[in-house]
Amino acid sequence: MTTDQTSSPSHLGYTLSQLDQLEAESIHIFREVAAEFRKPVLMFSGGKDSIVMLRLAEKAFYPARIPFPVLQVDTGFDFPEVLSTRDAWVERLGLRLIVASVDQAITDGIIVDDGKTSRNRLQIGTLLHAIEAEGFTAAFGGGRRDEEKARAKERVYSHRDEFGQWDPKNQRPELWSLYNGRVAEGEHMRIFPLSNWTELDIWHYIGREQIQIPQIYYSHQREVFERDGMLLSAGECNPLRTGESVEKRTVRFRTVGDMTLTGCVESTASTTDEIIEEIAVARVTERGATRGDDRFSEAAMEDRKKEGYF
Fold it and tell me: Is 75 helix (H, G, I), strand (E, B) or coil?
């Protein structure tokens, strides 16, 4: 009796979609880090990228709980909608949330507020103190290589020295996706599971997984004013300067952060599909278009990362 080869199932032509490949790679990174590092932590702001990271971590360890806490560096000027979404995710997954407060760091003398330095930059010392105090050996970040020039210089594993600083000239090769996680006492790694994702990939994944994100990513009415070519939210934390005026516009946020530095864009995109259509034709990255802290110089992000930024 012979076997009919043509009737047997074949998987030779089976391929994963791009989104499935990205998901599989990120899940592999989460599991690799959990197995290799003694004490990892996930930096979680409640923004879309960190929420996608948390969703990937949830899948990586399901049905068990995520085996590490989440850490947010609170500038004191975070969007309320983002903080409420952060809390909802933490409660649903039963996670330990560590909040490293810039205000508390100033009060404790860990960092100094000179009245000129942005709260976003003051996050650096606050973050490094939290990592040292908790003894974290690896910290997951949501950086993507399409966000900003400095992001593209880092690999999935980004080594930080005993001062929490990054040297772009001292990066380890990752041939065949093999990661070198060796660190000396006092050093740690920043891990970027979304390194190969784009903003468009993030939104396709949010749509596919029906992920809950802050509503300010979608079109809404908001009182804003224009400063340095950006639309900033009007409010107590953003006092108006001479010549500036508040008006109500239909806007949405592409990225969220410190309210004093994060701008919004005029948009009528109120659904995930509409946002995908909008981003598909965009020619400016989200950070380049709406983050004031990245406009100080061409190397603003790289300089902050060398000092220990996310």
Answer: coil
In terms of pLDDT, which residue wins out, 18 or 299?
Answer: 18
Report residue 45 as tokens. Answer: 């702001």
The two beta strands, 265-266 and 247-252, are antiparallel
Cβ-based neighbour number of residue 90 at 10 Å? 18
The CATH homologous superfamily for domain 18-200+301-307 is: HUPs (3.40.50.620)
Locate the domains of the chain by residue range: 18-200+301-307, 211-294
pTM for the model stands at 0.88
Cα–Cα dist 267/269, whole Å: 6
Q: What pLDDT sits at residue 257?
A: 85
Q: Give the model confidence (pLDDT) of 104-149 as tens digits.
A: 999 999 998 887 777 778 888 899 999 999 999 999 999 888 877 7
**Any long-range contacts for 169-176 (C-beta under 8 Å, 24+ apart)?**
none
**Does 9 sit behind a cis peptide bond, omega within 30 degrees of 0 on the bond before it?**
no
Q: List 97's β-bridge partners, or say none.
A: 70
pLDDT-derived band at 295, boundaries 50, 70, 90: very low
Number of alpha helices (DSSP H) and beta strands (DSSP E) in the chain: 9, 10
73 within 8 A of 102, measured Cβ to Cβ? yes
